[in-house]
Write a structure and sequence with these properties.
290 residues, alpha+beta, 2 domains, 4-stranded antiparallel beta sheet, 11 helices, 9% strand, disordered N terminus
């Protein structure tokens, strides 16, 4: 069987790939206006309902919707060479993934979209794994923190399908995963153990090793929720707890340091600011260059 996630094989172009765009900074995005007809929606108002549900799912997962759903405008032709501005959104890959999860499942193209964005996400994971060993600790933290952030969006979507609906439900669900991985500690207990301020997020103060453990916990929980078509909050909570427990056992068998005993890292926000500053700084020309 051919591995559809193989990044070295040419992939057939899909409608979703054809509308993918890249901004001047090199970041990919999709226009909601372009995505709407592909998903067989003819009304912007009806499609906005899907966008809203997807943003709520994004927020419930602990992510900022503003990072993935960016308000924009689009010029559309009216005829006779006339144009006007209409409301639009620029969407990240993960925003698109949430949208196809919340779109009408009866539409055949929606299933195609779910496959496309799931496969593309997996291919991105493989590409990241190939370069991870060549990065510094700070670079690994930046990469893994973003990956955990995106993965939590996917996990929230799977949990919602299982019956984890409200913000309180999701907080309980998340704590079950942490308890399995951190020997019974909840998110609040981990926060206190790391001596963090109230405004600081525990994931922002994890080193690369700890982030990788949490990423593994999340991906395994999501995979089992979807694979076994788990239903009910209690069952979903148990799946997340067991996923954390399995990762903890693996760490123990390998002789690794338990996550609650790993040191608290400096805020990743500092690294992000430093990286943005580095990228924005003008490059110094070497001697002999024009």
């Amino acid at each position: 069987m051919t591995d559809i996630t193989n990044t070295h094989l040419p992939q057939p172009e899909t409608p979703f790939e054809r509308i993918r765009q890249v901004d001047p900074d090199g970041y990919e995005f999709w226009s909601a206006r372009d995505l709407m007809p592909i998903l067989d929606y003819v009304s912007w108002q009806k499609f906005k309902n899907v966008l809203l549900k997807s943003q709520i799912a994004c927020e419930n997962s602990g992510n900022d919707p503003a990072d993935h759903f960016i308000h924009a405008v689009k010029m559309v032709a009216l005829g006779s060479d006339a144009k006007r501005e209409v409301e639009d959104m620029h969407l990240s890959r993960y925003a698109c993934y949430l949208i196809v999860q919340n779109a009408d499942p009866a539409k055949e193209v929606v299933a195609l979209g779910q496959t496309y964005f799931a496969v593309q996400t997996r291919r991105q994971e493989i590409a990241e794994a190939e370069v991870l060993t060549e990065l510094s600790e700070d670079q690994r933290r930046l990469l893994l923190r973003q990956r955990v952030k995106n993965q939590n969006t996917d996990l929230a979507s799977a949990a919602k399908t299982a019956g984890v609906i409200t913000a309180v439900d999701f907080a309980v669900f998340q704590n079950h995963g942490y308890r399995g991985l951190y020997n019974g500690l909840t998110a609040d207990a981990i926060h206190r153990r790391k001596r963090l301020k109230k405004s600081q997020h525990i994931l922002d103060h994890m080193g690369a090793t700890e982030l990788a453990a949490n990423l593994f916990r999340s991906t395994q929980a999501e995979d089992k929720l979807r694979r076994d078509k788990v239903k009910g909050k209690d069952s979903a909570n148990e799946v997340h707890y067991q996923a954390g427990l399995v990762v903890r056992r693996a760490i123990a068998e390998l002789g690794g340091t338990m996550p609650e005993d790993l040191p608290t890292a400096d805020s990743i926000k500092k690294l992000e600011r430093a990286e943005k500053k580095r990228l924005a700084a003008p490059k110094t020309k070497r001697k002999g260059e024009e």
